[in-house]
Amino acid sequence: MKLARNLFFILSASLLLIVSCEKKPHPTPDPVIKVDTVVTRHVTYDTLSCDTTIRDTVINIDNDLVVVAYCAYYGNKLPDPDYLTHLIYSSAELSVVNNVYQKILLFDPASKQRENRFRAMLALKEKNPNLKVMVSIAHVCDITGNSQGGSFSAISKDSTQRQHFAQDCRALCDEYGLDGIDINWELPGISESGAACDSMVDSDNFNLLMRDLREALGPDLYLTYAGHNRFKEKYGNGWRFMDNTAVYPYISWVNVMCYGLDVAPKPQNAISEPSAFTDCFRVYKNYRDNQFPMDKFVLGVPFYTRSPYVKGEWYYSTIMELIKYQPNTYKIKRNSNWHVPYVTKNGEMVGSFEDPESLAYKGEWLQGKGMHGMMWWDTNGDDNKHSLQKAAWNALKTQTLHDTTFTFTIDSIITYDTILINDTVR
Q1: Which of 136, 214, 239, 355 could form a cystine bridge with 250, CB 3.0-4.6 A?
Q2: Which residues pair with 136 in a beta bridge?
Q3: 345 to each of 82, 102, 323, 331, 358, how far by Cα in Å?
Q4: What is residue 46's DSSP assignment?
């Protein structure tokens, strides 16, 4: 990478690489080589004119890419707030009775679990004030006494109900200091959750719902949604899925669910696999061909695997334990086209998933496509070291400089976020 580009990234990040050089009588000091570096914060160096070579140094890059975690109301794992831009609590629920919207249900009256989990997520902002916390609203009915009663389909058909719901979303943000709302309607025109749907109008009404939400939320709060891997398409005499390009003006971005794209023995999340139902490249191409701007496309990745051969979901943490304790039965293999790993049981492919290596590749790949970032479902699937989360963060928010020489002419004491040098070789 050229020196000019390196300097651009550093300066645009407001991260000044500052080195300490000993004052010498002659104007051109000997070069100083810095090795074994780590990123730290708020370190002060007295800088004098010198040439400095940086070898294999990882720096934080301040860009507008987002690193987004969905965090389910169940489970006990929370993300590390220092390696995250946005956290989405999943989820609050709609209360709809006889096709009439009632309210948003955030907590369960029969249990404190949801409230405790939600407040624990909010508390992460105390550790990282830059973290943005949002709430996803779904039409599932896990809260005691709730019923779908018409769901998003009923709400979106009526302007009064849409505006009532939108104002409640704004009130929810104001009450808890939230940074925005995420909509999880799976899916307009076709139901994957048992909720009511109407293929004749749902897809178009989704646009109206997002428009009214943007108006109620104003320009400063985030508005996102869980996006399908396909665009609005004919379905019988009607339509199904979202017209993502039509809602582009109203949203901050769309979290495109690039997982569940097929089932074992095919991969669910491959970059490329022509024999699978679809893959990440074809999802990207579908959005691009429909003129959806990539600067609002966030690539969704799975922290789990699911297949006909296993009961429920296997989290990444579960897979790693199986590999460790039952190595003769379970193995991890890789496919050079998929760019994701998969697990086998007694030689049979169980399912594909993500690991640090695949996330590093996808991070580079999505940036090459001009995408806006990465999201995952869900935080419970990570291990206790946050291995997947940190891999996603490193893929999007850091850069490694190799044997790069900088010339500094500053003669003053400056305090910035900087790189701490562990070892110095002269």
Answers
A1: 214
A2: 90, 182
A3: 36, 48, 10, 7, 21
A4: E
Q: How far apart are CA 210 and CA 155, in angstroms?
A: 12
- Global pTM reads 0.84
pLDDT bin (cut points 50, 70, 90) of residue 420 is very low
* Least confident range of 24-33, 180-189, 191-200, 203-212: 24-33
Q: What CA–CA distance (Å, rounded) separates 316 from 328?
A: 18
Buried b (16+ CB within 10 A) or exposed e, 184-197: bbbbbbbbeeebbb
pLDDT category, 264, cuts 50, 70, 90?
very high
Calculate the CA 248 to chain-centre distance: 18
Sequence-distant (6+) residues with CB within 8 A of 190 are 197, 199, 235, 240, 241
Residue that has been written with the tokens 């020196």 in this structure = 3
Phi-psi region of 220 (alpha: psi -120 to 50; beta: other; left: phi over 0): alpha
Per DSSP, the residues of 211-224 read: HHHHHHH-SSSEEE
- Residue found under tokens 């990440």: 280
Residues 418/18, Cβ–Cβ less than 8 Å: yes
Smallest Cα–Cα separation from 300: which of 267, 263, 258? 258
Q: Which two tokens stand for residue 425?
A: 């070789």
What is the predicted pLDDT for the residue at 191? 85
